[in-house]
Amino acid sequence: MKKHNNCYCCGESSLNAIYNNNLFRCIQCGHTIAAEKYFDFDFDTLYSEKYFKGEEYLDYLSDRQAIQRNFDKRLNHLHRIFPTRKPEFVLEIGAAYGFFANSLQNIFPKANYLGFEISAEPVLWAQQQLNIDIRNEDYLASQLPTQSFSDVFMWDVIEHLPDPALFLEKAYSEMTDGGHIHITTGDIGRILPKIQGHRWRMIHPPTHLHYFTRHSLTLLLESKGFKVIYVTYPAIYRSIRQIWYSLFSLNKKRQKNRVHKHPERNRFVGLNTYDIMFVVAEKTPVILHQ
Question: Fewer beta carbons within 10 Å, N or C terminal of the chain?
Fold first, then answer.
């Protein structure tokens, strides 16, 4: 069981229990962590195929058009912000059904890709349908090629990890100097989470264990050798029925058939609530002093 004696990101010893003791918030950097009891779940069961079909997502596969639109826009945005960089050897942690790899192939066809996903069904689908190199393995225990990664992507995954620092440490060790790590996650320090409190859509342990602020994520990245070089809050594309599901059915005892019958179920829209941050950090080389 995870003991919350100190803040995960800054080490502060004062953590305030909030939302019926389900979360604990650091008074210094604002980082918020789920209660210890949520770290005892069987994560293989938690992230079974049901996670993508009827639990956290209504139907991930049917939302492919919207999800892939997000990836296309992010990659094109990165190319505009860093025009001289092109991904060469890419690692994705939390690859799901391989939609990002598909976008990467279309926009940067020369990039080599390797993905990791703990849920077996999406991996099999990606391998069979997209012919993508995604492995149903524990990234922390994996043996990787000798070639170093130029880019690491963690799309909406860091909040799920019991110990994100371990993943950042391993990624750092396997990246080239000057390589970029790209992270999207909720920012609990923004206006909407403060207004909504426990009703904020991102609060649903045990799948979400860490709730970062821009400051707390920066502290964590810096402690692992990265320098944050870019932060933005992009619009997110979702199908209308997934938005409806997230707002009114997720974590609520409601009949989900009303979502399936929504007349706009196949359409998607871009919405910016300014509480999802997109962070790019650069690996800074270790300087050895003689």
Answer: C
